[in-house]
Amino acid sequence: MAITRNVADITTRIGDFLTGAHGDRSGALSVLNDILGPLPAPEHPSMLENRAEAVGLLPVIHAWQIHDKSPPTDEETIHTLFHPAELARFSTQTGLSELAAMNILREMLPTAVRHRAVTAQASRAAPPVQ
């Protein structure tokens, strides 16, 4: 079994390398935003904020919202904040292997959380359209 798993892992890595999957961000942000749902608001925390609060990771989310250049998060945090079906959906809809999807999520999530917070704040501060 270990040999089969190693061959599958090597094959996946080769496929990801040949297709440039580790660097591919096209569509990934759209899928991530779709999974994350509505933008956060003071009276309506985001799905991610609710999940983070339930497991004691809300300070991490708040740090991402505040800091412009947060480092990538770890795989454990991704698995804690997302359901397996959401991770599979991200992988499927982006066309990335699970490994490439995880690597991109680790890099993208802190930045996406920051951008979503800034966008939400700007939309609340904008004058109403007449």
Automatic annotation (TrEMBL):
SUPFAM superfamilies: YidB-like (SSF140804)
InterPro entries registered for this protein in UniProt: YidB-like (IPR027405)
Domain of life where this protein originates: Bacteria
Name of the protein in its database record: DUF2267 domain-containing protein
Organism in which the protein naturally occurs: Komagataeibacter medellinensis
